Amino acid sequence: MSAPVPEDTQLQPLREALAQAWPGLRLEWRKEVDSTNLELMRRARAGEAEPVLLVAQRQTAGRGRLGRAWQSAQQVQDPAASLTFSLGLPLAPQDWSGLSLAVGVSVAESLDADGAAGLRLKWPNDLWVQQRKLGGILIETAALAAERVRRYVVIGIGLNIGERPGTDMRTPPAWVRQWWPQATPLGALAALAPALAGEVRRFEHAGFAPVQPRFAARDALMGQDVHLSDGREGRCEGVGPGGELRVRTAQGLEEISSAEVSVRPRGMAL
Ligand code: BTN
Q1: With contact defined as beta carbons under 8 Å apart, do 89 and 200 qualify?
Q2: Which residues form the BPL/LPL catalytic domain (predicted)?
Q3: Sheet with strand 119-122: strands edge to edge
Q4: Does 86 have pLDDT greater than 70?
Q5: Closest CA to 199 of 208, 191, 190
Q6: pLDDT of 51-82, one tens digit each?
Q7: Phi and psi at residue 63, to the nearest 5°
Q8: Higher-pLDDT residue of 145, 157
Q9: How does DSSP classify residue 48?
């Protein structure tokens, strides 16, 4: 079972807001794809480098970080209970580090502007509400033929909109309707996507450093004792200007920038 694709008239205001945020940015809403990230990466490799926001009502092979699968709530329960999309853009920042953190900050600020919902960011790219996972971000890039500076970036985001059971999940879930009872996938997308495109544009010119204080205001790991998947343990001291996680271990202050390392507060399973 899947929810109907929204009508063109319902999508029109969002189309206009997106085109204002990023000239030429097109909205494509599909009933089903294997993975919105995979689809845009395939297109980029085939030479299609248009700015596009691809939404899938249903993904049959959603992908998460570290080679994990991403299973949307709609596949489990309510057909409108999740939002899965990828934003594909040609981009040429001087430094890519911290992009996923800037994306998380933008999404968190759009969905929880005053912080009342307690939406926090768990380095490097999880959206958390009270140590429960609201969503995740998966960023991939592809080279563009005949371009030396720009790459095509695919920013994939999966968010729980409606309630979902937490069984078989590594981190128990949170969902947007916990503080926004009427939330829909389209409503949430309209609330966050134009601002996200603007955030990525600013990142391209200014990098992560100006976003660092905004990340700090929502940093779920700040001051927490954590263990890392590579065996290290320590206490988090925030993120640096390049988006690296600072962890005070027995060996001193360590800076973790590898997205291959996962971090969990002590007491949560890795
Ligand atoms: C994670 O938490 O591991 C990241 C999850 C990212 C999931 C989104 S859903 C839309 C896009 N398409 C995918 O296949 N993955 C991302």
Answers
A1: yes
A2: 11-204
A3: 26-33, 52-59, 82-91, 151-160, 132-143, 126-129, 119-122
A4: yes
A5: 208
A6: 999 999 999 999 998 888 887 765 555 767 89
A7: -120, 140
A8: 157
A9: -
pLDDT tens-digit map of 184-234: 999 999 999 999 999 999 999 999 999 999 999 999 999 999 999 889 999
Q: State in Å: Cα 157 to ligand 1 middle.
A: 5
Which residue owns the Cα nearest ligand 1 atom 2? 136
Q: Which residue has the higher pLDDT, 21 or 269?
A: 21
**What's the alpha-carbon Rg for the chain, to the nearest Å?**
18
Structure tokens at 122: 């768990």
Nearest CA-CA partner of 193 in 1, 15, 2: 15
Buried b (16+ CB within 10 A) or exposed e, 181-213: eebbbbebbbbbbbebbebbeebbeebbeebbe
**In this structure, what token pair is assigned to residue 158?**
């999966």
Name which of 25, 41, 23, 33 is nearest 154 in CA terms. 41
Q: How far apart are CA 246 and CA 151, in angstroms?
A: 28
Quote the percentage of the chain above a pLDDT of 70: 94
The residues, any chain, with a CB within 8 Å of residue 217's CB and separated by 6 or more, are: 115
Residue 115, token pair as written in the block: 């912080």
Q: 80 CA distance to ligand 1 centroid (A)?
A: 17
Taking a C-beta distance cutoff of 8 angstroms, is the pair 76, 130 a contact? no
**Substitution site in 63, 68, 139 for ligand 1 pocket (most atoms within 8 Å of beta carbon):** 63
pLDDT of 270 over the 70 cut:
no
- Using CA atoms, how far residue 42 sits from 34, 45, 181, 190, in Å, is 12, 5, 36, 26
